Amino acid sequence: EEPILSVQGLSVAFDTEAGPVRAVDTVGFDLIKGRTLGIVGESGCGKSVTALSIMRLLPQPMARIEEGRVVLDGTDLVALPPESMQSIRGASVSIIFQEPMAALNPVHTLYKQVSEPLRVHKPELNKKSLEAEVVRLLSDVGIPDADGRLSAYPHQLSGGMRQRVMIAMALALSPDILIADEPTTALDVTVQAQILDLIRRIQKSIGMSVIFITHDLGVIAEQCDDVVVMYAGKVVERAGVSELFEDPKHPYTKGLLDSMPRLDAPRKTRLSTISGQVPGLMDLPPGCRFQNRCPHVMERCHTEVPKDLMVRTNHLVACHLYDV
Ligand code: SF4
Ligand code: MG
After folding, report:
1. Is residue 61 reached through a cis peptide bond, with omega within 30 degrees of 0 on the bond before it?
2. Between the CA of residue 173 and those of 89, 120, 164, 236, what are the distances in Å?
3. Is the separation of the CB atoms in 49 and 58 below 8 Å?
4. Which residues of the chain carry a pLDDT beneath 50?
5. Is the CB of 251 under 6 A from ligand 1?
6. What phi-psi label fits residue 86: left (phi over 0), alpha (psi between -120 and 50 degrees) or beta?
7. Which numbered atom of ligand 1 lies nearest the CA of 236?
8. 67, 12 in Cβ contact below 8 A?
9. Sheet holding 63-72: strands in order across?
């Protein structure tokens, strides 16, 4: 199973008033063609920074990729000049965000927004075929009466509809890879389910590969084939979705799973949560970054950074408990 995208040893630094901090530290994973890879972790764990690094959309000039490779079809995107990235964004890799209003231009009509990537990348389309293409894209993402809405503005739409418009824009050029960064977090449960369903349906119909970023393990279970668990800028565990849920290894992953609401649990069961706080990137402890919250912490955890260990084929964990 060939990876379509391979992230290797990626480290990203941010400048702060107190000096540079590493928001992402030697992160690696493969996205297999046609599959969905989930990246899960609490906010601030480096999920979005990883996504922005792949797109080369890190905030400038305060953030930079310090080391590592992002290999797409044999090309290292990290080494590409910025101009070449423009032809990759949208056409090969697209991204959608949690807040569609940030991606949509409030003074542009739906027609203008959705036709934009097409006008740039397919200048040969005449006005009529451009309009037909925009209507098709909007209908495909479930916007009812799309041809009657071409002159509508973003603020005239509900949050769910705006998210659909953003998805239509992201899919306009049939990218090979879609990165979805918490695309449903701001939506209510029903709309969330519709959007997840939409992404799955489109993925199947055009054979796209997806990176799905979320803090919600329920979404991971529904949506993903493979999972990367991140904590404080590092990958702590990586496995296929069923293996991760059935046989989690890292104490952090176990804690996340234990705090998941369960359908079969009696109604008033108290959810366990992981006590303590994620350490700030400014004051990371030496050794394991999870040590202050870990129920299994040992002497060496305070001094030695855990190595990446393969506990099985395709199952990686970074924890001293498995280093035997
Ligand atoms: Fe816990 Fe130590 Fe494993 Fe870190 S390395 S998760 S502190 S047992
Ligand atoms: Mg985020």
Report:
1. yes
2. 10, 10, 15, 34
3. yes
4. 268-270
5. yes
6. alpha
7. 6
8. no
9. 19-32, 3-16, 63-72, 75-76
Q: Is the CB of 305 under 6 A from ligand 1?
A: no
Question: Which amino acid is it at 269?
Answer: T
Which ligand is the nearest neighbour of the Cα of 44?
A: 2
- What does CATH list as the number for 1-92+176-191+204-261+270-278? 3.40.50.300
Task: Pick the closest to residue 236 from 209, 254, 214 (CA basis).
Answer: 254
SS3 93: strand
> What global pTM score does this model have?
0.93
- Of the listed ligands, the closest to the CA of 51 is 2
In short, whether 29's Cβ falls inside 6 Å of ligand 1 is no
Domain boundaries, the chain: 1-92+176-191+204-261+270-278, 100-174
Q: Identify the CA nearest to 54 among candidates 2, 23, 1, 95.
A: 95
pLDDT tens digits for 169-215? Answer: 999 999 999 999 998 888 888 888 888 999 999 999 889 999 999 99
